[in-house]
Structures
1.
Amino acid sequence: MTATALEPVKTIAEFAVAPEEFQDAIRKIVRSHAVNELYGARVFDEKAIALAPTPYAKWLTCRVAMEEYGHHVRFRELGEQIGIKAEQLVPGEKKPLSIFAFPLASWEEFCVIKLLADLAEILQVEDLLHCTFHPLRNLARMTMPEERFHAQFGKDFCLELCRTPAGRAKVQDAIDRYFPMLPPFFGASSSKNNATFRRLGIKQRRNEEMRADFLERARALVEDELKLTLPKIVAAA
Ligand SMILES: [Fe+2]
Ligand SMILES: [Fe+2]
């Protein structure tokens, strides 16, 4: 059975009798969030607590780490309710995203990751705010203020680091090395999965539209606010 209408699916009980195509699409998205939130919390946020230079910075980094683990917990709970197997909700058989392959080694790098990767995450979560599956829509609405806090955290600490020439150079260097990993995060242009998500009212925008929006917002942030340079990237697939 294929779904054609954009009828909202308001509850887990309604989900259980929704068309298979809709169920599969939702499971794909929930699974990906559950896996990647956990992986990111492990390789970046938890590690960054040790890198944070002051008790204040450690305190805020603990909060960020707590929230990222919290995102995993929420997506995992939803995943269990919609019938995703426990082992599919943690990193393992599903490879985490390439943006997590960056070997985090410094506080400056972490601040840049929050500045840019969490901005990318905000765009992804924004796209689910009007999702036809209401439990996922509600989860996105709950997650959004926290992702905004992470991006603001990144911006505030980057601005602080940029007050000295040495700090500025380190932030620029981290941007130069990390930023090129981000555009592929939005997925392939003309993606079939994305077309299905839009047809079912789960997502709103094409991958390439989100990528273009991200590049524009990242450029404004880095060039207008931090007065640094965003590396030129070759147009992605
Ligand atoms: Fe998150
Ligand atoms: Fe985040």
2.
Amino acid sequence: MKVTLLGTGDAIGTPKIGCKCPACSDALRGGRSRRLRFSVLVESDEDEGKVLIDTSPDLRWQLLKKDIASVDGVIWTHAHYDHYAGFGDFHRVQRHVDVYALKGTMDYILNYLYFLKPLRHDVSAYEPFEIAGMEFTLFRVDHPPTETVGVLVTNGSKRVVITSDTTLEIPEESLDLMRNADLMLADAIMPPGYNLTKHMNAQEAMELARMLGTKNLQLTHLSHLYPPHEIALKTWPLGHDMMEIVL
Ligand SMILES: [Zn+2]
Ligand SMILES: [Zn+2]
Ligand SMILES: [Zn+2]
């Protein structure tokens, strides 16, 4: 299985429009602090298929960079703009895309995208389903007040966990699914020291990974409030855009 971090930024991305902080300056110079909004591409063994987890507002550039003209499915974790708004970029590129989400999330997103007609698959949390030879299980996390799920992807013996946007208050039933992942992509919007009510900071995400026995942790959904990427990397395992992890 191959996992590509198409976008590791938070809702506003880095650089933030108009900001000249160290991370934004690095991003403007083309450094790795530059972050598109959140999307992850998961590819199954032996090229059986591709699944997009979330469709960020930057999706067009992400698909161009990876030369992807079609996918076998799209999974939406929640109905926040930075996680679905780029879906329209499929329009006239790929029709009838299979899309998967909880019912409430799906209702909200397809209302916004009323002019598109993807193939809707309402799924339930904790009930596995299959796309392109990979098994996916959505599990509830805590991102108040919005219904939000993380995603467990299983392909052969490998397990990948994507927390989506969440605080540390993850239900026990979900934590059980998240244990011993070969790779975890975890929301860590800010370094420690900020008061967060909807997200984890880097320290919390690292504690979660340790508690769950995660083999490889990459932090994502990152804001411009970190130091520039190469400096921040000395303290936290930050992912970067277009990072590929082969499992
Ligand atoms: Zn988000
Ligand atoms: Zn900035
Ligand atoms: Zn969110």
3.
Amino acid sequence: MGSDAIEGVPARYWRRLADGRIQCEVCPRYCKLHDGQRGLCFVRARRGAELLLTTWGRSSGFCVDPIEKKPLNHFLPGTPVLSFGTAGCNLTCKFCQNWDISKARAFDRLQEKAAPEAIARAAAEAGCRSVAYTYNDPVIFLEYAIDVALACRERGLSNVAVSAGYICPEPRAELYRHMDAANIDLKAFTEGFYKKLCTGALQPVLDTLVYLERETDVWLEVTTLLIPGHNDEPAEIAALSAWFVEHLGPDVPLHFSAFHPDYKMLDVARTPAGTLTQARRIALEHGLRYVYTGNVHDPAGQSTWCHGCGAKLIGRDWYDITAWALRADGRCGACGTPLPGVLEARPGRWGGRRAPLAVAGNLPA
Ligand code: SF4
């Protein structure tokens, strides 16, 4: 395909190399492109002397979700979030749980164009408090994500990034200037896992976690998908937890979620609930205060407990809030210990519903 067929908007973060190729500097892959070539993510492509983002304004569909589904348990609990993504990804995880979107090549999943203001307006009209850049990674569509985020802030909506955190420092700083919360996927705690199963690297992800927690006001939560036989050894969970407490502190929530066989990893069984419970216990023993289980029915592991007195602060059953024992100032109703997060006097009442939404010509997913 000649480069004339490539359409898009000018991309940021690239430079021309001495040999004439263009190097994308959004993520640590540093794809080096000849005219007409696309990066590994497929959505950043070279046309002549410039690099383009080919998915600006293109979405794979919109849905209103509970914020707990991102998952974020300490950020405006109980409120609805408008979720959307585009296509492509900059990692190649064999166990991808969203592969129909992240691996989309022909853009057949992408529907009508949606202007940033149309998304912000639809989110506000649907009663959402935030918009989430999710399903695939906003790292690769950051120019579009930032334009949508600007429109959302104009309307008083918050912005949520759901990302694997595989991004270079300069674009990272720009993307997260526009974000209010993030859930970062920490896929495992070994370089071998990232190399073998994602063709990526662990260290840039750890750098992103430390950056977000120490250098920004973005509310951070972290998710690790536990895959039997690949990243669920107690010793690895212990090492992850020790690093987590030392570098991020005890108050950053950590979610252990259950894998289901998908994409190129159909030969591995679903994660047993006991593995998640064990991982949660190990992390708590290492000093983390807010550790959750996900993708399983585990009301105790999904609820928020006061680290001061042990009272149940927010009860959850899947994505439904079943109890709320916080004072209006976000402190434990029993002992007054503050709960870290972005909290309001009362929880939202969205519940566990998932509702497809049409946006500016986009059809419901
Ligand atoms: S964002 Fe895409 S094109 Fe750029 S370096 Fe990463 S994978 Fe390559």
